[in-house]
Design goal:
The protein contains 2 helices and 13 strands, in the order αβββββββββββαββ. The protein has helices spanning 16-35, 231-242, and strands at 61-65, 74-89, 92-94, 99-105, 111-118, 124-130, 135-142, 145-152, 173-181, 184-192, 208-216, 254-259, 264-281. Strands 1, 2, 3, 4, 5, 6, 7, 8, 9, 10, 11, 12 and 13 form a 13-stranded mixed sheet that branches. The relative contact order is 0.22.
Length: 287
């Protein structure tokens, strides 16, 4: 059976040419959403935060996608996983390359979030998944202009904003190796994208050759709200674990990506903070 896995959104890693490509794509995405079916208002969260402007008042954040999907404007979390990515060109570390990341979980609600900030451009990427409402929201923003898409939550198409490349996670194979990261028991998955004709691969290209990923062994270790996820999602995630893949709720705590041109991107967990309640407004991405 073909393994099912999420595809992560590709992120800016380093280099001015990559930054320029991102800015171009960002502008194109904003323009395309502006001409599509747009919903610039989000359903109010359980507690409105005073002093915030309505989302439909001169919005700089355009939310498109499935009109039937309901997304809260404020999310509440009480667990934060802090991470940092380090980008390398050959043996030289790119000082302003990589991203700062925070993964948010809730102990009392089946929802999670991923926030990422590019060190090189300041671009913001955010993702929210609400299993109770079967909804997900992806946002990209830079210079206080943002675009987002809300969709029905589907584990096979779920795409959290996270450093990595699309198209390799379905090749992950569990190695059986285990280690503890920041007090969390993890297991190793690897993927090798080198083809049999790898000798023909252009060594100057930035195509992904392989990856090593360390994932929490149990999803609920960092995400107690997992207990409140509807059963049909839990069943699907259990199937994914049995097949050797891992469910989207278990974000990697460590990743190592290698590219054909010798570049590398390493992601490490620097801290895990539990028990700190925080409210995060979707509109904060453009403030």
């Amino acid at each position: 059976m073909k393994k099912r896995a999420l595809l992560f959104l590709a992120c800016i890693l380093c280099g001015s040419s990559i930054q320029a490509q991102f800015l171009k794509k960002m502008k194109e995405k904003v323009r395309s959403l502006a001409t599509a079916n747009v919903d610039s208002t989000l359903e109010e969260g359980p507690e409105d935060m005073p002093g915030r402007k309505p989302l439909n008042e001169n919005p700089s954040l355009i939310i498109g996608g499935d009109e039937k999907v309901q997304i809260d404007s404020v999310f509440e979390f009480d667990i934060a996983v802090y991470q940092e990515t380090r980008a390398w060109q050959g043996n030289q570390r790119v000082i302003k390359g990589g991203e700062d990341i925070v993964i948010y979980y809730s102990s009392v609600k089946p929802q999670l979030g991923v926030h990422l900030v590019s060190k090189s451009t300041g671009a913001l990427y955010q993702f929210y998944a609400d299993f109770a409402k079967a909804s997900q929201l992806s946002i990209t923003a830079i210079h206080k202009i943002g675009s987002g898409t809300k969709e029905q939550l589907d584990l096979q198409t779920m795409e959290p904003v996270y450093p990595g490349e699309s198209g390799y996670l379905n090749q992950l194979i569990k190695t059986g190796a285990k280690k503890v990261i920041a007090g969390v028991a993890c297991e190793e998955y690897t993927a090798n994208n080198m083809r049999e004709d790898s000798g023909k691969v252009n060594v100057t290209s930035r195509s992904l050759l392989g990856a090593t990923v360390w994932v929490p062994m149990q999803p609920h270790t960092l995400f107690p709200g997992y207990a409140f996820i509807p059963d049909h999602y839990k069943d699907q995630m259990e199937d994914m674990l049995i097949e050797g893949s891992y469910p989207p709720v278990a974000m990697p705590l460590e990743m190592h990506l290698k590219y054909a041109n010798g570049d590398r991107v390493d992601t490490y967990t620097t801290d895990i903070v539990r028990g700190e309640n925080r409210k995060i407004a979707v509109m904060d991405v453009i403030r």
